[in-house]
Amino acid sequence: MLHDRVLVRHEAGEGERRSGGGILIPATAAVGRRLAWAEVVAVGQNVRTVEVGDRVLYDPEDRAEVEVRGVAYVLMRERDLHAVASERLKGTDDSTGLYL
Fold first, then answer.
1. Residue 89 in contact with residue 99, Cβ under 8 Å?
2. Which of 46, 54, 72, 92 is the most buried if burial means most Cβ atoms within 10 Å?
3. What Cα–Cα distance (Å) separates residue 28 from each residue in 11, 15, 22, 24, 37?
4. Is 13 helix (H, G, I), strand (E, B) or coil?
5. d(CA 77, CA 79)
6. Considering only CA atoms, which of 61, 79, 51, 47 is closest in space to residue 10?
């Protein structure tokens, strides 16, 4: 990876899903603009805030997909990430492990 690029693997789950109340929402249901979670698999040398293994929140509308050895990945700049969830951020009792 070069410069400030981040390579992520999109988490599956674009099919049916359940609401908080247990209602089944079919995959064909129209939803508003929604951000998606992905796992970081590689980072460039100038990336400062994420590491391999972190979960990141990004906009699936603004993505460049690439396929490597039959696996689909998303390539983006570090500045295009909206949030990072990481175990290494849980340092105190009041920490959520999520930073925006």
1. yes
2. 54
3. 18, 8, 18, 12, 20
4. coil
5. 5
6. 61
Token duo for residue 8: 């992520």
pTM: 0.69
Tokens coding 77? 């700049």
Decide: 28 and 59 in contact? Cβ < 8 Å: no
DSSP E strands in 1-100: the ranges are 5-10, 17-18, 24-25, 36-43, 55-58, 64-68, 71-77, 81-85, 98-99
Residue 29 and residue 9 in contact, taking contact as beta carbons nearer than 8 Å: no
Average pLDDT over residues 19-33: 68
Region for residue 87 given its phi and psi (left: phi exceeds 0; alpha: psi -120 to 50; beta: otherwise): alpha
Q: How far apart are CA 43 and CA 65, in angstroms?
A: 16
Q: How confident is the model at residue 42 (pLDDT cuts 50, 70, 90)?
A: very high
